[in-house]
Amino acid sequence: MDGPGRTSLGILLMVGFAIIAPMMDSCAKLIGDALAVGQVAATRFAIQVALLMPLAALAGWLHRPARGEVGLHLARSGLMLVATGCFFTALRAMPIADAIAIFFVEPFILTILGGLLLGEPIGPRRYIACAIGFAGAMMIIRPSFQDVGPVAMLPLVTAGCFAIYMILTRKMATRMHPITLQAYTGLAALVLGLPVLWMFNGSGVGPLDPSWPEARELRLLMILGLFATLSHVCISYALSFASASLLAPLQYLEIVSATVLGFYIFDDLPDATSFAGIALIVASGLFVFLRERHLGRRPRRPVPPV
What we know:
The chain has 12 helices and no strands. It has helices at residues 3-31, 37-59, 67-91, 96-103, 106-117, 124-148, 154-170, 178-200, 215-241, 244-247, 253-266, 272-294. The longest helix has 29 residues, at 3-31.
């Protein structure tokens, strides 16, 4: 495939991710309180492993992880479990578009952590853009906090976990095939998550006490896991076909598809204040991205929500 063809395919896959990922979130919201959120998160990773591990094995992409690599897999997966659990919990009480929009402060957190932990230079313009983006998030969180309480803060926790997750991922992304990386991430998440669910079985602790799903919930779990895996495969291959500098702005299409799905499935529609906050987050995120590109730094890869 020639250069333009690869780029077009990368763009198409990124748009596909922006459409599919909110479908996963919609399934999580439809499950609601019927199942423990930890059980939903664990099932999501179990399906990811079941789909990707055989594929990686048949293609010859698997390898024996080194000792230090195992630690990184476990650390990344622990962050993913916390992020997924927080985000799915938030979805039970918040509109999908609001939760995803708040999550998109993750590039600002990553920018700040890059300066603090990695010594990357950050100018005053990007600090101002980050502050404006956080202000946009507060515009969404404040009315949501009045309605649902501290749950409205959970997408921020998800964003923070993902920012650290991405810093760790930088050390591993060039060492293995993206399908292998996703397969091992899911496997490590199960190693960490399943013992916790076993310990809390029958405890009555809502988020961690698993139960056998009814037929409806079982179907939703299967669809959720399929959408989660497919969306991550889309974004992984999109980044191999086209540059992050081209693809990153397209990720904001996810807010559009989340708004449409939220309205048609749940009759949720962000109010005027939330729309203003979303606009601030998107504008600030694009500015940070374009500023890094202008300064000649390698743009940060887009980060998929859970």
